[in-house]
Amino acid sequence: MTAPVTDTARAEPRPAGWALAGGLLAGLLVFNGLLSFAVEVLYLPTYLGSVPFPISAAFAAVVNILLAMGMGTIVSRPAAMALPVLAWLIGFVICLSPGPGGDVILTNDWTTPLFLACGIVPVGWYLFWRGFMRPARQAARKETRR
User: How many domains does the chain contain in total?
Assistant: First the structure.
């Protein structure tokens, strides 16, 4: 098997300063991943009457996908697109550990695994699609055009 060859002669030139702006935007998106986690974890113990209603788990799914899509405008590798989600995951692990007074933000309730699953699984599927399925479809389209 041979590796696919990309045509770099057709690549459109990027304006001057794009690398700096891209780096700043990537840093901002990684910070937003951590910031969105902080807001989502604060709203995780929301109740509707006497019933737990973890709406922030749904927000985590949507926001993490949007952060990965935003990174997709800067980088093309799925591993680099996952950096905001990794910051989100680092925040999750930090909140699992007890604080100095013994208090724990994420408890052993059913909402914590739901929050983790909603924050990781949808964006994982998106990154899988972006990294494996989309290039395969683009290659198949190129083959049918020939």
Answer: 1
| Predicted pLDDT of residue 7 | 47
Q: Report the run of H or E that residue 44 belongs to, with start and end.
A: none
25: its two tokens: 């935007």
The answer to whether position 14 is within a domain reads no
Residue 14: pLDDT band by 50, 70, 90 thresholds? Answer: low
The pLDDT tens digits of the residues spanning 66-116 come to 999 999 999 888 889 999 999 999 999 999 988 888 888 888 889 999 999
67 contacts 32 by C-beta, under 8 angstroms:
yes
Which tokens go with 78? 């799925």
12 part of a folded domain: no
| E strands, the chain, in order | 47-48, 51-52
Residue closest to 47 by CA, chosen among 130, 111, 90, 95:
111
Side chain identity at residue 138, one-letter code: Q
Range of the domain at 90: 27-145
Instruction: Give yes or no for a contact between 58 and 115, defined as CB atoms under 8 angstroms apart.
Output: no
